[in-house]
Amino acid sequence: MPLAPAIAGRPSFKRFIPLTVMLLTPLFFSSNLIFGRYTIPEVAPFTLAFLRWAAAAVLLLPFLWMARARVRSYVTTYPVHWLTLGFLGMGICGAGVYYALQFTTATNGTLIYTTSPLMVIILERLFFGRPTSPREIAGILVGFLGVAIIVLKGDLESLARFTFNLGDLMFIAAALSWAGYSVLLKGPRTAGLPVQALFATIALSGAVLLAPFALWEFLAGARMPVTWTAWGGIAGIVVFSSLLAFSGYQYGVARLGASTASAFMYLLPPYGVGLAVLVLGEPFEPHHAVGILTVLSGLVLATAPKRRP
Questions:
Q1: CB neighbours of 251 closer than 8 A, spacing ≥ 6?
Q2: CA distance 177 to 84
Q3: Average pLDDT of 217-233?
């Protein structure tokens, strides 16, 4: 009898590590917008994204080498798949986000990005026939209402005037891209790859796709990193926002599934907004408070597990 609780608790203990990792992962993701907002005045967006993923790929080369046989099989068998992951996760969610930060705040970007779990549900419904309950549909509608409040800054008249912030709209596109990345990440095509080897492959894919655009910025005379401040920001993005964040997220998707791992993005608002206010000194306005409560209400409604008798 004394052994029963321990035996019964083993499955929960096996989930302890991935759950702990996913508690920290949104904090690392949130640091990307902070470092990005801090660095983008000194580094052009495509150059910043290219340096980020090129450095990450170089640091992850040992993992790529150890699993080279399986990586070679994956790369040659599914070229469209790993290139698409690089385009969505490292291109749009990399350079696109840095470009958007020139027009909007890290606070807005964080709050809009939080809707990615809702978009995961929509994409799984559209492309994989995932059943969607009325509760999930209601949660999706409530969540996007929160995004509208944030984008419109609580001013419904701006909807009629169509005066949306370009950066906010780009963050909506980035959230959709991240949802697509999350859905494509888990499946039979990537099941045989170690987490770090898969991440190295996708990081290399992103660097290859971003290289022509970074070269174009360099030849056009765009701003390049020349100060210790710029390189420090890039180092923070590589270590915290890339290696730790993406490795943690891919580990969570592999162990918990895309929907469950994405639900931890609930933590993006408190982490991201808190860092933006404390580190960047960005204002926290009433429409942010209303928007965050609305978005989180929609997320909880859409992704909370069903009660079991």
A1: 18, 21, 195
A2: 10
A3: 92
Work out the average pLDDT over 222-227: 91
Q: Confidence class of residue 286 from pLDDT cuts 50, 70 and 90?
A: confident
Between CA 92 and CA 36 the distance in angstroms is 14
Q: Could you give the CA distance from residue 207 to residue 46 in angstroms, rounded to a whole number?
A: 10
CA neighbours within 13 Å on the CB side: how many for 264? 26
Per-residue pLDDT tens over the stretch 109-128: 877 877 777 788 788 777 77
Tokens of 84: 């698409």
The answer for residues whose C-beta is within 8 angstroms of residue 289's C-beta and 6 or more apart is: none
CA–CA distance, 225 with 252 (Å, rounded to integer): 33
> Contact at 8 Å (CB) between 158 and 149?
no
Q: Which two tokens stand for residue 293?
A: 């409560």
Q: Where are the alpha helices (DSSP H) in the chain?
A: 3-39, 45-59, 61-66, 68-77, 79-85, 97-100, 106-113, 116-128, 134-151, 157-161, 166-185, 195-219, 228-236, 245-256, 258-263, 268, 274-275, 286-303
List phi, psi (to 5°) of 120: -60, -45
3-state secondary structure of 40: coil
3-state class (DSSP) for residue 201: helix
Instruction: State the DSSP code for 278.
Output: I
The model's pTM is: 0.77
* 227-233-239 Cα angle (round to 5): 135
Of all residues in the chain, the percent with pLDDT exceeding 90 is 29
Q: For the chain, where are the E strands, in sequence order?
A: none
Question: Rounded CA gap, 76 and 163, in Å?
Answer: 46
- Could you tell me the two tokens for 149? 């409040």
What would you measure as the largest C-alpha separation in the chain, in angstroms? 73
User: How far is 183 from 56, CA to CA, in rounded Å?
Assistant: 22
